Amino acid sequence: MNLSRKTVLSLRSVALLYLLVLLVLPIGVILYRSFERGLGEFWAWITTPAAISALQLSLLIVAIVVPLNVIFGVLVALALARGRFRGKAALQAAVDLPFAVSPVVVGVALIMLWGVGGWFGGIESLGFRVIFGLPGMVLATTFVTLPFVVREVEPVLHEIGQDQEQAAATLGANAWQTFWRITLPAIRWGLTYGVVLTIARALGEYGAVLMVSSNFPGISQTLTLLVSSRNHDDYNTFGAYAAATLLMLLALIALVVMSLLEATRRRNRDDD
Fold first, then answer.
1. Can you give the pTM of this predicted structure?
2. Which residues fall within 8 angstroms of residue 205, CB to CB, at 6 or more apart?
3. Do 115 and 7 share a structural domain?
4. Which of 207, 222, 216, 199 is nearest to 111 (CA)?
5. Are residues 111 and 162 both part of a single domain?
6. Same domain for 141 and 16?
7. Longest dimension (CA), the chain
């Protein structure tokens, strides 16, 4: 379809205006409010004990969630791409469930399961606390980030097919050797994208974590919860903007890494 120059410019202007209103202006306001008192004041608010603890907890959750989702995501992607079994459609739907269910609902469901009086609530009598502790926050974050690795790896598995894997098996390679030497190198870019998306989503999760966290500063407060607490509980808007900027910088790092990986992938493809 050929569009006139006027139509193209109009569509481009609408798209740029849309991005300006919904993306550039809010980010600009956050940055302005974060640095309006100077870099020193900003640094002071992101290095408070509560902020450092929130950052450490957020990174700890990411460090636990990412390996879990990598292992689970690759196994499920292999099952969906290579397997033929009853219930495959149900598994496909289950993988996409976190996209459809509100994170708050996820938090409530975890409380129903692991909280006092829940189906597995008796585990607290053994001294292992899930809800309002780190395990509950990890479970909530794992659930909401579950689809990313699967949805990035599965299309790659379909694209590469099974010829090389079958050839390796014919030559005597066992399942682990085939995966390590054939499958994993082939899916490395899809897996990397899934990991980056998982990191970004885990850092920004709020609703599900809020429901299963005690939200005590220095104990069970992530960066997203710190932003909310400073803004709504302490009425400390500057501190909230500073923490939000720190969170945004972490997400920006993840975005830059993903862009660099994409550039590397294209360069490797061109070389091949």
1. 0.86
2. 103, 140, 141, 144, 145, 222, 224
3. no
4. 207
5. yes
6. no
7. 71
